[in-house]
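Morning - zinc ion inputs below, output right after.
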Amino acid sequence: MKRGAFIKKTLFILTVFCSISFISAQHEPQCGTVATAESEKYFQDLLPQIRQYEQDYYQKTLQRSSTAISSVPIKAHIIRTDSGTGGLSETQLNNAIASMNTYYANAFIEFFLCDGINYIDSTTYFDYSTDEQDALTNVNNVDNVINIYFANTVSTTDGGGLCGYAFFPGGPEVILMNNSCALNGSTLPHEMGHFFALSHTHGNTNGTLTSELVDGSNCSTDGDFICDTPADPQLGGGNVSSSCIYSGSAIDANGAAFTPNPLNIMSYSRKVCRTEFSPQQYARIYGVYQASRAVMACPSFNVDIASSYTRDCSNTLDVNFTDNSIGATFWQWDVDGDDIIDYTTQNPSHTYSGEGAYDVTLTIFNGSSSLTKVFQEYIEIGGEDISTSEIILTLNTDDWPAETSWEFKDSSGTILYSSPVYVEGIDDFQTFTENFTVATNECYSFEIIDSFGDGICCASGFGSFNLTTIEGSTILSGGDYGFGNIVYLANDVLSVEDYFANNSISIYPNPTKNTLNIQLSNSNNLPDTYTIYNMLGQVIMSKRIHQAQDLSIQTNAFSEGVYYLKISKGNHSNTLPFIKN
Ligand SMILES: [Zn+2]
């Protein structure tokens, strides 16, 4: 699957309110979550891309490479009284962000203050009510950064006290924080978790028992949609002891007793207990950042790059990079994702050799300040991936067909198929269909040419062409291409990649004690092998999968901790984290 630019939609607003639970440990936290049909769709639309980035995240973790941390801009709005008193101090703000950054470093991101602090001296907003949001944020928000408003108190319209609230991707880039909660160490990372699409571990609905099963078998579709956080019947002061032990007795639909994690930051556990994100929660934060939040930019200081190159079938590629950053006086480029600085010039050129997708990282400096951004798999070497047995060209000529020609070549440059001579006055406004048979593990080029240089569309004429696989996936199309257009296509045995796209794989229970099960949506088509790595990337065990019984892994001998299970089929793999308790 190709990752397209994620198109932001603003259809829905999903607000998560998180209550102040320290007032009374006896009271259940008051939390209002509004999940709509649009919010579900939004998340589902984003999920395939997120899952790809999660895979990249696990690979980064295992390979210990390309681990640079991207800088994400925060605009801090500190609300004080009319006379300018009260409000969070700058030191408190910096400490709160630094504390949050210790967590988010594990997701390869860190937050920085963009353009200092905006002080809002208003006694009205000092004790903020949620119905004041538009009036407050419309005049203060900075576009394309995370706007965090720090108020003395935050209340719902009916007077309920809140610790803070945030919006999922798709909503406004706004977080509201109660000052004391901002300093408790867990609410700010919790709200930021929502900003990166993390749900509460008990799911998106408060006060209703989660449908996520204790055995983890529906963990990817129910509860918080995260598989290494145990099902949570909704924690709170009433069922978590002051020593952070769960004491509830709720059972799931199978009659199994819940064993939730009172330490998880995305739970409603006691604030002081919340000190952990799970590995997959970190992977999701990373995935959501790459899929929908990486475009955020501080107006005065920002990293951005462009590049120009012609991608072809070869394993080498010359790329010219252009720095489009704002506010930079010094540059450090890692152009191949190995955490080694390759260039310190502003606009370097680099020759790549070796197939693959490369992360490009640029760090910019200005005085003592620096910013870093990782552009995930920014450079891809070799042809674009396709997987098919046949390619189909559909050509609708314009009224100058003699200007049009095309060639289909293999990687050695041999012309396999080429256009007939289209004849003026006969072939005008006709539709031609051509079929190209292709072999696997070969790279092809398709080039369409207009000898006059005005394409077949738009300036004059309404011609077009469409190059697709026989399965119907569009490879290249258009008509407004000037003198021509060329595309390089690597036809791999991607039926294996389709295997992971079409055969959803999950593991349960997670966390696990004695046995970890690999669950396949199509159990008739087994993967080849699995390998288990520890947090250091060392191989703990590896096994060839011969039969369905091989999908149950004995983990009782493992020491407690986080592991990664890499499941392989052909040259492709899927990696999932699990926790051994
Ligand atoms: Zn929350």
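Note: The CA atoms of residues 534 and 563 lie 5 Å apart.

O.
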